[in-house]
Known about the structure:
Elements: E1 8-10, E2 17-19, E3 21-24, H1 37-48, E4 53-55, H2 64-72, E5 81-86, H3 106-120, E6 125-130, H4 139-151, E7 155-161, H5 165-178, E8 185-189, H6 204-219, E9 222-226, H7 245-260, H8 264-273, E10 280-283, H9 288-299, H10 304-331
Parallel strand pairs: 3-4, 3-10, 4-5, 5-6, 6-7, 7-8, 8-9, 9-10
Antiparallel strand pairs: 1-2
Helix pairs in contact: 1-2, 2-3, 4-5, 5-6, 7-8, 7-10, 8-9
Amino acid sequence: MTSGALPTVAFGPSDLQVTRLCQGTAFRTLTREAGDQQAESVLRHCLDVGVRFFDSSNAYGWGGSERLLGQALRGRRDEVVICTKVSPSEPPAADGTPGAARTFTETYLTEQLDGSRQRLDTDVIDLYLLHSPDKVTPMTQLCERMQRVLDGGGIRHWGVSNHSAAQVSALLAAAQMAGTTPPIGVEDYYTIAGSAVTPEGESRPRVLEREMFPVLWEMGLGLLAFSPMDRGELAPGGTVGAGSPLAELLQTIDRAASQLQTSRGAVCVAWVLAQTGVTAVLGGAESPTHVDEMIEGVRLELPTEILESLSAGSNTYSQSVVAALDTDRRMR
């Protein structure tokens, strides 16, 4: 693939110009530590082919992924937009149980931000996200605390990840009431497959479309959609039962890829980006080849007929996931 800058778009109501492909660092098969040559080669390849948007979290390897990204970006920091997240949790305990919950106090937010800045080797984080709700801090207090973090100069903008549409709406209302700077966008799970469900047993992509998309449209917020390959379930080479709902969806995707003379990964990325309201797709490519496939998806324009076929396949698959879950619950 030829190198060069990819087109950029504004992320929400901000001055951040991001490429529509964001490379993540929550690697599944590569280590999440600085010094992993394969992981670093993926990140540097992203830079070479024009990706200018990168995502991490203090919880990915509990600092390891941020150190990895900081090292890979050394000398090129000014070329990119960095997004990282703060988790309301301590690292897992030694026995493998989940880490202790933390609340987003001002002290905790500041301490974690300072750690992220140090690991990423940067003075300022472009986009700082609350990785998930702490379910304790009142929205008005949270907005006031994030305003003070903004005022401290360590971040440029803030947002949230894995929050419901109701929580995002409440944050926006609280920011307006408190006169503070509101979040500029969200990061959430959105994929053509959507095997993940809400605690209520609904398809997460369908809930996002029904509830979150209208909030994003009305308020002009950005959306960074993660897991275009559905946590690897859509990747070629996996074992899929013949005639299963997933096999049928993959056949629909592969048929589109054949018609367009492209790859399955490119079609998955293009489908996500074709949805109104999606600003960028967050991919977890673990090889330069996978990066190139995703960039091909950014450049791919799906014809209406193919887009409709893919969307129908997506809906059918999510319905099958929910139906199987309902059947399993009834049989228990």
